[in-house]
Amino acid sequence: MKTYTLEEVGQHDSKKNRIWVTYGQGVYDITEFIDKHPGGPSKIMMGAGGSIEPFWTVFANHNTPEIHSLLESMRIGNISEEDAESNKSDLYDPYATEPTRHKALIINGSKPFCAEPSSQLLVESFLTPVQFFYVRNHLPVPQIDIKDYTLELAIEGTTKKTLDFKGITKYKKKTITAAVMCGGNRRSEMSKVKKLKGINWNVGAVGNATWTGIPLCDILKDLGINEDAFGHVQFEGYDMDPSGTSYATSIPISKAMDPRCDVILAYEMNGEPLSRDHGFPIRVIVPGVVGARNVKWLSKINVSKDESQSQWQQGDYKGFSPSTDWDNVDFSKSPAIQEMPVVSAICEPQNSDLVEIKNGKIRVKGYAWSGGGRKVIRVDVTNDKGKTWHTANLMEDLKAKEGRHWSWTLWDVELPVDKNSNEVEIWAKAVDSAYNVQPENFTHIYNIRGLLCNAYHKIKVQLNLN
User: Fold this and answer.
1) Active site residue 136
2) Angle between helices 6-16 and 81-89 (to 10 degrees)
3) Is 261 designated active site?
4) In Å, how far are 114, 182, 359, 391, 444 from 291, measured between CA atoms?
5) Are 20 and 77 in contact (CB under 8 A)?
6) With CB atoms counted within 10 Å of each terminal CB, which end of the chain scores lower, N or C?
7) How far is CA 60 from the centre of its chain?
8) Are 320 and 446 in contact (CB under 8 A)?
9) Quick check: bond before 117 cis, omega within 30?
10) Residue pair 47/67 in contact by the 8 Å Cβ criterion
11) Rounded Cα–Cα distance for residues 344 and 179 (Å)
């Protein structure tokens, strides 16, 4: 293969209308791959004409044999060993100051950090302890000194007001109990239908907590916002990629302005100041909505006629037909996920466990939740593939108001089993107050990003017949 200089790599785009990058000593022509990049064209173009190693230090989930193999398929040459070492000398570790996490968390990605508790630990308490609450970071955790913290309030990009932390806490505070769920929760099950791109979450990318903060609608009213003049409220975080682009998303202004939607700028979680992993000092909590909209480390609120144009709003967290693939997907044709569908999961026992039979029954526990404030009214469990269903006992937030059931519901059932069977398959499905019910299988709801994974939860356990 030909050897190139770094100058040749940087100039190639303008001369040949091709896009080159380097990684290690390799030179790669990524022109045909740009539009297929799962993170969006703008992300991969940040590395055009130079080394992608600084970006892969931040987005370390690229460091897999599959992705390295894909990169190698685009290799056209090399740079010298000296030039490769020069690229490495500029690297730094943006994750060097990450917070300490509890060892009980199951790590699904280290850079950025993504982890969940075991399913059994998840349903030990109605409120999820902070140290066991799932963590879904998209970028390195920022270091923020509360004395220097500011929140920018803008209309169509023009700053109208800036608040420090004390200025925010002067507003009348509100406490809500709400579950937050990642859009890819239970992706590991959908991936069995067909290969997926995304974090391999089990059932633990969800948690339930009390959140204390300031109603967003009060802050917007202080800005003199007329709901009819705008369409969306955009949020940006202090977490940034190497180009200085912040994590950002948006929600409809109708939700942001409605006091019954309980959108808050939270500064406490379970009665304590937010931890760094969960958005210290301020994060948005949008109850009943996919976790991706609950922006952490909030730096800016922008009221606009338009949705956020960020990758996480326009090029991700959207659902598609099972027949859509990476060759024919058009993200502009699908709306961004907001309210989540009804879902449940079996948390105890876990798949393949050996379970004791007591009085001809086994105890099964789990959680259920529905987006949009819809109440879970029933959880049905079967061990004979739907011939007989058993209705579970529910533990819910009894203080929740109609249409504002933001919290999850825990459930348990004493399930009769055949004492002569060595193995039993258990299914669970939830029904919400709109009589939405989970679909039976993942085949018919498969989508290329592995989102909205709400088919029946199914596990197989071994029975202890002694």
Assistant:
1) yes
2) 90
3) no
4) 13, 5, 41, 29, 23
5) no
6) C
7) 17
8) no
9) no
10) no
11) 13
62 is catalytic: yes
Query: Which residues face 162 on adjacent strands?
Result: 152
* Per-residue CA distances from 292 to 137, 145, 249 (Å): 10, 24, 8
Could you list the pLDDT tens digit for every one of the 466 residues in the chain? 788 787 777 776 655 678 888 888 889 898 888 888 877 776 777 778 888 877 777 676 677 788 888 888 889 888 888 887 777 656 667 888 999 999 999 999 988 999 999 999 999 999 999 999 999 999 999 999 999 999 999 999 999 999 999 999 999 999 999 999 999 999 999 999 998 888 999 999 999 999 999 999 999 999 999 999 999 999 999 999 877 889 999 999 999 999 999 999 999 999 999 999 999 999 999 999 999 999 999 999 999 999 999 999 999 999 999 999 999 999 999 999 999 999 999 999 999 999 999 999 999 999 999 999 999 999 999 999 999 999 999 999 999 999 999 999 999 999 999 878 899 999 999 999 999 999 999 999 999 999 999 999 999 999 987 6
C-alpha span between 131 and 133 (Å, rounded): 6
276 annotated active-site = no
Distance CA 72, CA 161 (A): 49
Residue-wise pLDDT for 23-67, tens only, equals 888 898 988 888 888 777 767 777 788 888 777 776 766 777 888
Q: CB-hemisphere CA count at 13 Å for 323? A: 0
Give the active site residue among 12, 28, 114, 136: 136
349: tokens are 């026992």
SS3 state of residue 218? helix
The single residue of 4, 28, 247, 317 carrying the catalytic annotation is 317
Element (H, E) at 365: strand 361-369
Catalytic member of 4, 114, 182, 404: 182
For the entire predicted model, the pTM comes to 0.86
* Cis previous bond, 273, omega within 30: no
> How far is residue 319's CA from residue 333's CA, in Å, rounded to a whole number?
10
**Cα–Cα dist 134/113, whole Å:** 10
Q: Please tell me what DSSP assigns to residue 31.
A: G
